[in-house]
Specification:
This protein is mainly beta. The chain has a single domain, classed as Thrombin, subunit H (Beta Barrel), CATH 2.40.10.270. About 5% of the residues lie in helices and about 50% in strands. The protein is built from 1 helix and 8 strands; from the N terminus they run E-E-E-E-H-E-E-E-E. The strands form 2 sheets. A 6-stranded antiparallel barrel has the order 1-4-5-8-7-6. A two-stranded antiparallel ribbon has the order 2-3. The longest helix has 7 residues.
Length: about 120
């Protein structure tokens, strides 16, 4: 099992981060959410969220759903509004942890969007 702070060598998935873009009129009086890439793509480690792993990462917080823990290089602008695209799947970020607040590594708790 990967450590929540997986080394750079364990980061074997290439992903794209996206943040919400401006809403676009849908032609029926409503709006459609657009997404903007947060370049560049990044190599990350993705592991299934286990109770044990979540206790280490999210102690003292309330989590409604968590399916994956993603360890990534630090980048500004990642928040709980961010989503991750990986292998045709979408992971919504539900928690962001800047490890030791050093701006080196992010540990993200994510929920997979099933479509």
């Amino acid at each position: 099992m990967l450590s929540p702070t997986a080394s750079v060598y364990a980061r074997q998935k290439r992903v794209m981060f996206q943040n919400p873009g401006p809403p676009v009129p849908d032609g029926r009086g409503g709006y459609t959410q657009t997404w903007t890439d947060v370049p560049p793509s990044a190599d990350v480690a993705i592991m299934q969220a286990t109770v044990n792993a979540l206790e280490r990462i999210a102690a003292g917080t309330v989590l409604s759903t968590a399916t994956h823990i993603v360890t990534a290089p630090y980048r500004a602008g990642i928040s709980t509004k961010t989503r991750i695209l990986v292998d045709g799947r979408v992971l919504n970020v539900t928690s962001v942890q800047d490890v030791e607040e050093r701006h080196v590594t992010l540990v993200l708790v994510c929920a997979e969007v099933v479509q």
